[in-house]
Structures are given as C-alpha cells and as structure tokens.
C-alpha cells in the first residue's frame, strides 16, 4: 500500500475552532474517503459552514489539525494554500462571484492564476459551462443571471480545476424545487465521475435524494452522529 492510501483523503483530529467563544466547533474527529458523498447536517448555527471552511483552509483550528491528503493545517505555509485549493473546490453559501467579470472570466480566473495555457483554459471553461447548462450565458455578468444560474457559475468555477473533492455550502438555499432537483442530480453525476462531494445543509429533503450518502450530524458545534 502506498503511503497516500494509508490515510483517508480528509481527516479531522480533535479539531476545535471556536472564535474565542462558545460558538464554532469543538473536538471534531472524523474522516472522509476519496469518492464519498457526504452530507453535513444540523440546525442553523450548528457549525456546518465552519467545517467546510476548515477543509478549504479558509479557517484554521485553534486545537487539533485538519489533514487533506498531504496538506496538514498545522504545517501548511500560505504559499501552499493555492495547491490545496486545486484539489478542493468550494461553492460558498453566498456564491462569491465577481460582479465586474462575466461568466467566462469568473470560471477561468483560477486557471489563469495557476498559469494554464489560454487554449487549455478555453477548452476547460467551455466544457464545464456546457456541462452545467450555461453554454448560452458565457458573456453575461452575474447580475444578469437568475439565482439558479449564479449557483451553476459557482459550481462551474469550483469544478473547472477538476478537484478531488467538491464542497457545497447550502447549495439549494434560495432555489425553487425543480432547480434544486436539477442541482442534486448534477452533484450526484459529479460524484459518479469520481469526485467526493460534501454538502452542508439543513434541508433534510435533500438527504433522501442520495440514499448511499454518509451523514455527519452536528449540533451546537459538536458531532452528534455519523451514519
Ligand atoms: N467568523 C466568526 N466569528 C465569530 N463567530 C462565528 C464566526 N463564524 C461562525 N461563527 C459562529 O459559529 C457558529 C457556527 O457557525 P456556522 O456558520 O458554521 O453555522 P452553520 O451550521 O453553517 O449555520 P447556517 O445553517 O445558518 O449556515 C455560530 O454560532 C456562529 O455564530
Ligand atoms: Mg452555514
């Protein structure tokens, strides 16, 4: 067995991140393997977004450590974070699209930053935008798109890097039921292609759509159940 296979893809070792108060998350221990579909569930304020941000290394533990493949939160240097984020795609709860750039530019940006060749960038961006059903919106600005379309730009931006894990924070937040169904089908398809998908949600209806998924239930900053 190679060293890479000896640990799971994502490991939390006694992680606490409390923002100096009682809030946040405490004593988290869990692991996620390559290719898994995982829901992180729990009520508002439970700590779901905090867990995703710890995986993205947008936040760091006060105690314990998060290890994602060979990236260790207790040792990682600032200039190594972009390499982690080539492996980990994140769809934020509020999308975080750039309003002064069009759809193409929003999706292409991370590839430019990683110094891909223009031809490769074009090919990848067109492919992913067609895959998420936005081939006809390439030169629109985010303000000219519906909520569901903006959501799909955020997904395309996360996927264009071909990450090994996709993090989605409350991805159906403001979407109507039909668009939510399309989105869950898209996430299931992405997972079938081999990408691990981790969805944070307090919408229990979503969970029933992916019967094989692992459930990590959090409440008040602690894991109360994993099934
Ligand atoms: N930057 C921060 N500074 C201080 N406290 C924070 C910060 N971020 C989160 N918290 C607190 O940590 C707790 C968990 O927040 P988090 O955003 O992870 O919850 P959540 O489960 O994602 O909730 P929601 O379902 O509403 O999105 C909350 O009590 C919140 O107030
Ligand atoms: Mg949240």
Report what the structure shows:
There is one protein chain. The protein is an alpha/beta fold and 227 residues long. It has one domain: Rossmann fold (3-Layer(aba) Sandwich). It is 34% helix and 24% strand. It contains 8 helices and 10 strands. It has helices spanning 3-6, 48-55, 81-87, 103-113, 118-131, 147-159, 177-192, 204-207, and strands at 10-17, 25-32, 37-41, 63-68, 71-72, 88-91, 165-169, 196-201, 214-219, 222-226. The strands form 2 sheets. It has a 6-stranded mixed beta sheet, sandwiched between helices. Strand 9 and strand 10 form a beta hairpin. Helix 4 runs parallel beside helix 6. It is globular. Magnesium ion (MG) binds at residues 48-49, 93, 169-170.
């Amino acid at each position: 067995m190679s060293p890479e296979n000896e640990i799971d893809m994502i490991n939390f070792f006694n992680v606490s991140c409390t923002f100096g108060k009682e809030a946040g998350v405490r004593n988290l221990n869990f692991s996620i393997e390559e290719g898994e579909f995982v829901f992180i569930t729990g009520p508002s304020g439970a700590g779901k977004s905090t867990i995703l941000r710890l995986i993205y290394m947008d936040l760091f533990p006060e105690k314990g450590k998060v290890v994602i493949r060979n990236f260790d939160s207790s040792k990682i240097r600032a200039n190594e974070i972009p390499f982690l984020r080539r492996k980990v795609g994140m769809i934020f709860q509020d999308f975080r699209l750039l309003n002064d750039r069009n759809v193409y530019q929003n999706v292409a940006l991370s590839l430019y930053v990683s110094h891909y060749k223009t031809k490769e960038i074009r090919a990848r961006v067109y492919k992913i935008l067609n895959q998420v059903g936005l081939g006809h919106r390439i030169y629109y600005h985010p303000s000219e798109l519906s909520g569901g379309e903006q959501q799909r730009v955020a997904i395309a931006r996360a996927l264009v890097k071909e990450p090994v894990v996709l993090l989605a924070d409350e991805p159906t937040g403001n979407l109507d039921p039909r668009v939510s169904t399309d989105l869950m089908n898209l996430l299931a398809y992405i997972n079938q292609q081999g990408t691990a998908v981790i969805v944070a949600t307090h919408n229990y209806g979503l969970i029933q759509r992916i019967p094989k998924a692992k459930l990590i239930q959090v409440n008040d900053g602690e894991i109360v159940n994993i099934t």
